[in-house]
Every structure is written in structure tokens, then in C-alpha cells.
Amino acid sequence: MAEKDGMLELRSVSHVYVGRQGASLAVEDLSLTVAEGEFVSLVGPSGCGKTTVLSLLAGLLRPASGEVRMGGREVEKPSAKVGYMLQQDCLLPWRTIRDNAALGLEIGGASAAGRAAAAERLLAEVGLDGTGSRYPGELSGGMRQRVALARTLAPDPEVLLLDEPFSALDMHIKMQLEDLVQATLRRLGKTAVLVTHDLAEAAAMSDRVIVLAPHPGRIRAEIAVPPELRALAPTEARKHPAFQAVFDELWREMGAGEAEGGEAG
Ligand SMILES: Nc1ncnc2c1ncn2[C@@H]1O[C@H](COP(=O)(O)OP(=O)(O)OP(=O)(O)O)[C@@H](O)[C@H]1O
């Protein structure tokens, strides 16, 4: 069977950082497959290698051994097929919201009219209709992160890598954005890998949660979220009777990880 474009695979991947203090093994012999359209979260104590795994999937880092594949092909460098969203929105303050949302399209060579139309459509998709002519400094943190989502989606990536994109927001805005991101990615059929320190967020948003153990990073546990939770928006999933069991399992596995000692962070 042909491998789908949005399918991700880590095959026995290890990664070593080499710095002034010598070489350190950040991730060891990690194997993971994410199906096309699946939403997978990575949790684990600080320093266990979550961001390293995202960087490997994005082609920003090359593994010391093993293989990273997307759509059945080896990932050798960053590509427009992978969108990356971070805790910081990284909007350019001198560009309008429309031009920020269209940044990836501009880099990709789209015409000015095409970029503007696509940006307006995406801004409407993330609930920011009518804000295109404003500037980032005029928007709240939650609105800015919506612009970052529109910008990430604009080049129509197969895969979204989300590195704690909600962690700087207050609880109410964070939950609104969790619903928006999950609904948007589901509707568009995107594959997503989310890194988060928030176990409730992982349980509410994901199809599957991977718990990493530290030093070196490896998979401690894999928890499948039951279908009755997956069918709900994250804010609704948090209220479902099945939610607590998933949260408790994650908490137990994280506790086991902490006994091994993560980094203070
Ligand atoms: N550029 C680097 N050079 C050397 N070591 C690094 C580098 N980046 C990360 N590390 C080390 O690799 C390990 C994994 O780091 P990584 O940032 O992937 O962890 P994390 O789980 O994302 O952490 P956090 O939850 O704190 O963001 C840590 O021990 C970290 O100190």
C-alpha cells in the first residue's frame, strides 16, 4: 500500500548534540508512526527531547542514526509540506495582519492578488474576519496566535508541528484556541504533532499521547484516547466522564518519568 503524504515515521532514531561540554545523547532509538490526519501529542518532563523530536520531523535536525520519513520519503531538509507553530507568534510588527498571514505564500512566489485573497480566506477561517489591515501590535495575544495559525496553514502543509503554541495564553483564550486548532486541522485533514506540558490539553486534543522518558529521550508509554473523547471538541472532552481516566494514566506515567529526573524547567 502506498504511504500517505501526511504520514510521519521515526525509525530507530537517535540524536546527539555536540557542544562545548562534549556530546550528549538527547534521543535514543525512538520509533514512532503518525498516520495521515492523526493528532498525536508528546508529553514528558523538561529536557526529555520533545522539541528535538519536532525538529527531527521538520528536517531542521538530521538524526545521528535511524531514519525520519514523511509520506514514505526520507526527510532531509525543511519543506513547505511541514508547518511549524511555536509559543511565540513571531509576527512581523511592520507588516499588516494580511501580509503576516501571507508570508509563506510570498516566499513561495504567489502573486500579490492571490496572496491577499488566500490570507483573507484563512483569517476568516480562524475567526479574524475584517482584521487584515491592522497591525500585530493592535491585537491581543490570542488574536496574534490565530494569525500565526493562519500563516502556518497558508502554504497548505500536510503536517503541522505545534510546539507549546497555547502555553503563553490565559486559560480561557487557550481553551478557545485548542477548539479552533483541533476543529481546523480535523476539517482540513492535517496530520499534527503537539508538544505540551499540559496533560489535560494533550488528553482533550489528541487521538494518541506519547509520554517520553528523559536522559536520553525515549518512549515510556503510548496512550490511545478513547473514541468517545476524540469525537468531541477539547472543551467538551474535558467534561466527559472518560476524560479523567486518560488524564490519570498520563499523570501516573509522568510521575514515573519524574522519578528518573527531568531537567528543572
Ligand atoms: N542545541 C543544543 N545543544 C546541546 N544540547 C541541547 C540542545 N538543544 C537541546 N539540548 C539538550 O537535549 C535535551 C533535549 O532537549 P529538548 O529541548 O528537545 O527537550 P524538551 O523535552 O523539549 O524540553 P522542554 O520541555 O524544557 O522544552 C536536553 O537535555 C537539552 O538540554
TrEMBL record:
<dbReference type="InterPro" id="IPR027417">
    <property type="entry name" value="P-loop_NTPase"/>
</dbReference>
<dbReference type="Pfam" id="PF00005">
    <property type="entry name" value="ABC_tran"/>
</dbReference>
<keyword id="KW-0067">ATP-binding</keyword>
<protein>
    <submittedName>
        <fullName>ABC transporter ATP-binding protein</fullName>
    </submittedName>
</protein>
<dbReference type="InterPro" id="IPR003439">
    <property type="entry name" value="ABC_transporter-like_ATP-bd"/>
</dbReference>
<dbReference type="InterPro" id="IPR017871">
    <property type="entry name" value="ABC_transporter-like_CS"/>
</dbReference>
<dbReference type="GO" id="GO:0016887">
    <property type="term" value="F:ATP hydrolysis activity"/>
</dbReference>
<feature type="domain" description="ABC transporter">
    <location>
        <begin position="8"/>
        <end position="241"/>
    </location>
</feature>
<keyword id="KW-0813">Transport</keyword>
<dbReference type="InterPro" id="IPR050166">
    <property type="entry name" value="ABC_transporter_ATP-bind"/>
</dbReference>
<keyword id="KW-0547">Nucleotide-binding</keyword>
<dbReference type="GO" id="GO:0005524">
    <property type="term" value="F:ATP binding"/>
</dbReference>
<dbReference type="InterPro" id="IPR003593">
    <property type="entry name" value="AAA+_ATPase"/>
</dbReference>
